[in-house]
Amino acid sequence: MIDWQKVVRSFRFAGQGIVDLFRFENNARVHLLLAGLVVGAGLWLQLSRTEWAIIVTQIGLVWAAEAVNTAIEKLCDLVSPGYHPQIKAVKDLSSGAVLILAITAVVVGALILGGHLLERFMSN
After folding, report:
1. 66, 69, 87, 112: the active-site residue
2. What is the rounded average pLDDT for all residues in the chain?
3. CA–CA separation, 115 vs 120, rounded Å?
4. Overall average pLDDT of the 88-99 stretch
5. 6 annotated ligand binder
6. What is the pTM of this model?
7. How many DSSP H helices and E strands does the chain contain?
8. Parent domain of 110
9. In Å, how far from its chain's centre is CA 35?
10. How far apart are alpha carbons 27 and 69 in whole angstroms?
11. What CATH number corresponds to the domain at position 10?
12. Total domains present in the chain
């Protein structure tokens, strides 16, 4: 039997995590701003459904990676408040993962939006 109260409570906790991510984490706010600009450009360029699916997936992946990175960093800070070379390596690796996804998202965005921009400006 499904305990729906637990399900609802879990979603509430997850929602609070998302709110906290964008409220307290500077990099997440940067990703939010850039995502807003990409969505605005996508609306202006009238992307296809497939292009929107790809763009939204990229945005979601970067946000999810940022959330996981933030969770790892907070856990590291709790476990080892002082400097430790292994903790530094863990933090660097997790932030590197976000950077890899962010670079990939930029490339995907450039391929999709750039193609539309070229078409728009070349036809004028």
Report:
1. 66
2. 96
3. 9
4. 97
5. no
6. 0.90
7. 4, 0
8. 4-122
9. 9
10. 11
11. 1.10.287.3610
12. 1
